[in-house]
Amino acid sequence: MDDGVNVEGVLQEAKFYNISSMIDPLTILLEQSKKEISRKDFVNILVTSSTNISLRCQGLNLSGIDLSKLDLVSAEDVLPV
User: Fold this and answer.
1) Which of 22, 31, 35, 44 is deepest in the core (most CB within 10 A)?
2) Can you tell me the distance from the alpha carbon of 80 to that of 24, in angstroms, rounded to the nearest whole number?
3) Pairwise CA distance, residues 46 & 55, whole Å
4) What does the angle CA 60 – CA 22 – CA 9 come to, to the nearest 5 degrees?
């Protein structure tokens, strides 16, 4: 799989077209990619991302992260709207 490819989307396509040889490996790959990331990891993604591209967090499991006190007010000047 190339970087940036939506594994879940490819899995859905494999299921739709009934490509059974791809379903199990993609399911395993999807489960491995859904590991939770930490708040520190997420903030690192924000800080190190280029300001001239859209930030994509597709496939990241953010359910265990408390972002309630994350202040992005100053990011308005840095990040594209």
Assistant:
1) 22
2) 39
3) 8
4) 35
Position 58 pLDDT exceeds 70: no
Residue 7 has pLDDT above 70, yes or no: yes
CA–CA dist 61, 68 (Å, integer): 16
Contact 60, 35 (CB under 8 A): no
- Three-class DSSP labels, the chain: CCCCCCHHHHHHHHHHCCCHHHHHHHHHHHHHHCCECCHHHHHHHHHHCCCCCCCCCCCCECCCCCCCCCCCCCHHHHCCC
Task: Report whether 8 contacts 30 (CB < 8 A).
Answer: yes
Please identify which residue in the block is written with the tokens 């953010």: 62
